[in-house]
């Protein structure tokens, strides 16, 4: 074991918990990431996403070199930093000079919100100011709504919730998104208090709660009003607060008087007993902390619900008292010197609305958007109406993307700037979930050639006349950016070892003064109930695209995606629709349609369809292909949950049933099988000799009768070794039987050798193994073959074999190689042999690289030296991405043979 170090740092991911973390590093390599027990608030807690982050840092799919391409149709190639920064500077200058600076859109996402991130916009402001964004994909509506009520949104310090006798988690799911609240929930329950979850969906927090109330999505205002009326009816309202510290109370009480409790509960879709429970809890288990979740924001008129819940807190006497309050979030950029955004350096520049970014880019004229520069975000995937966002991005002539992976937005880029993760950076991080500020201490050196965004802009600034205003060491910048922190006594050196609590009240509004025009709490005085009750019989389910439990939004890799996204419906509703768990369904909205796998979940409302957001479009997910691009009335938030959908059994011919024969754990179906599933196939995999099948030979069926196609995968076995693989004769027979029945066969690597053998081809061992991503050439026959339809060029494809074959006499060669000539052939009616591994995704290829690299070296493998592996690893993200596209086309075309199209 080498030198082991433990580095305290702070999680910078888009998560309110902002945990203090400990990075364990051995010989310069991150080996573990866990919660820092010394953090005063998060106290060693960390979520499931934390430990997994180590794999993300070293993922074979992570782009670790700058990449460039002349058009989005051209392949990526590695470039130097100087080359890409020169190119960006040249294009920025040319576009500004020709069309003005507003022809450039800077899209700064919420992926990371550290102190140094202020300087990203500062860079563009030094440049002259460009088009930016306004509004939010997340919590803007909540903040703006609470600003109307409280003057300035201030939340209770999370540690104050230990003073709560009860808690209402209103659309918040701490188990998945705010892990440090879980001990508070346990504490309240241990003390006999109630914890009520209000959520149309069944979240992972529900089992921790005393009760789950399930209002119709977006109708929380009615539920809050019903509970308020019950408190008023019981005479338990906080009269002093209403009389002395509030404005608009008579008007709000007038609004309440227009409805009966029964009417309000009916509008919210809950029994009156639920409103009674809320009211009783607020009256008898005081103080109650009410915590607002992010799902509440995602409606066009969400401010009504948010303000009605604030009002419930006010009427019940929970404002300004320890353990009470209606808490929504914290100002994460608050502890920094905000003048470094640099917005005052130029006249006001154009901004586009984030919630409708696709539409706004397309409608931008004078000047049109010619260039887009994206940091810390994946808007093509995450912004609503992805189809339109993709269209808008593809119209820009130059897109720069700073990120980690080849995701949906990267697909539209011309330059890919590989960004460091927070473990490779020095910075300072505040939170939107609590009051602590923590140091981001660099734990490891940047992976590959990755750079922090700060260093990217720093080195880009060198190419402009304002260079000297930007070029300063990180330490100096942090010193200045953190001036407000220093003014409050924070020593930046000490911060490196211990989080600092930014001065903010534990209990806001304790003195009952509010930053509203009247100085009092401001009740909502206008309410239009009909705006919360829109339904469309054609689309009976509200689509709730909730925060994933195991990922932060679209932070995932291509290989981590399941073939299809999972959507969740209440079991009774699924049965009513004639659907069952595991069915492939089509989810349709007014905007688009996707295919998904259905799951059922008890405890969920029947009129919602729930799905975890963030899956990529290119991986067959992309739920935002369904969502409408609207903006909320207050706060310019994104009302994702205004999307209503219909769920139907997947249309078209019955799903073809494909039998997959897998020979080796290390040689799974990868992209080929995922593509088949995404294209509508149902797969069943057998591992001969390992899959149980009493009536079948070695787990293989004896006839193709129940199947529509056969895939035979690779493996380390020799295709002629029947003694070692006694199922081979039966498999050869089966391959011929499928073809005779005009059912397509695909053999990959070993599978192709077996296919050749089944049709009379010869087997041989090559002089040396063929390994790596290799360029092959299609024959003229391939250009006419239906399986190669739509293939313009064959990208380099993974090879890993030492055995080869001579073509059967009746076979047609489709792809030729240099070292091994027979790379792909067609034989019989519809049987295809692929010697190359078109199915290999980055994870499979990475595993094979590891296995091959550790084989004993000999003269035959001398060419595979360290430089070979280094280059292969550096190019792997791009190679895997190109290979996946090729594989998808081939798999879809092959499946058409099974469908007899
Ligand atoms: S993702 Fe959130 S809960 Fe998980 S480690 Fe980071 S801040 Fe903590």
TrEMBL record:
CDD domains: GATase1_1 (cd01741). Residues 4-61 form the 4Fe-4S Mo/W bis-MGD-type domain. The keyword Iron applies. PROSITE patterns: 4FE4S_MOW_BIS_MGD, GATASE_TYPE_1. GO terms for molecular function: iron-sulfur cluster binding; metal ion binding; molybdopterin cofactor binding; oxidoreductase activity. It comes from the Bacteria. Belongs to the prokaryotic molybdopterin-containing oxidoreductase family. This is 4Fe-4S Mo/W bis-MGD-type domain-containing protein.
